[in-house]
Amino acid sequence: MLEVIKKRCSVRRYQATPVPEEAIGQLLEAARWAPSAGNLQPWFFYVVRSQGVKECLAAAALEQRFIAQAPVVIVVCAEPERSGRVYGERGRRLYCYQDTAAAVQNILLAATAMGLGTCWVGAFHEDRVRECLAVPPHRVPVAIIPVGYPAEEPVHRTTRREPEEIVSYV
Ligand SMILES: Cc1cc2nc3c(=O)[nH]c(=O)nc-3n(C[C@H](O)[C@H](O)[C@H](O)COP(=O)(O)O)c2cc1C
């Protein structure tokens, strides 16, 4: 597991090779089994293969063109009221987004294990993403995840803060 966690890195160039339906199914399966507060599973996933919708998403995401170049894009949404009904403001403002983020990370890790490249894209105009997919008001777009076979060997270009800086043993 740690190997996969460390291997995952953001991939922003993809081969045109289609991603099999079965592989997408496995990514969604990984998402579905994420933990969630009260097991309320306050999430929803749009699987986008339409070139027109991918172009719309790329434009909504500040022209991050690699989104339109990926064979598949998964848009992950939160459903705040699903958590809010049980946990009130804490569910509405915090749990539903924590739960959804866990589902996103599950997708990224499963994709890595399957040799697929992904990137967690959070920089987008929410209203414009809503328009691309006709997202109803009770859903909030949280992440856009382009998925494809990497066009280059994925290598870590990023660094991590040292444990001494971020951990306190009490
Ligand atoms: C909440 C969130 C939003 C992000 N938004 C973007 C984005 O809009 N565009 C992008 O290219 N990468 C985005 N990233 C990816 C980060 O830049 C990347 O994870 C970070 O630099 C560490 O690199 P690594 O993923 O290769 O380990 C986002 C990551 C997170 C967690």
Describe this protein's structure.
The protein is of the alpha+beta class and 170 residues long. It has one domain (11-151): NADH Oxidase, CATH 3.40.109. It is built from seven helices and four strands; from the N terminus they run H-H-E-H-H-E-H-E-H-E-H. The protein has helices spanning 2-7, 21-32, 51-60, 66-69, 80-113, 126-133, 163-166, and strands at residues 43-48, 72-78, 117-118, 140-148. A four-stranded antiparallel beta sheet has the order 1-2-4-3, with helices on both faces. The chain starts with a helix and ends with a helix. The mean pLDDT is 97. Flavin mononucleotide (FMN) binds next to loops.
CATH class: Alpha Beta
Radius of gyration over C-alpha positions, nearest whole angstrom = 16 Å
Major β-sheet, in short?
4 strands, antiparallel
Low-confidence runs (pLDDT<50, min 5 residues)? none
SSE order? HHEHHEHEHEH
State the secondary-structure class.
alpha+beta
The number of helical elements comes to 7
In which range does the helix fraction lie?
A: 40-55%
Overall spatial form: globular
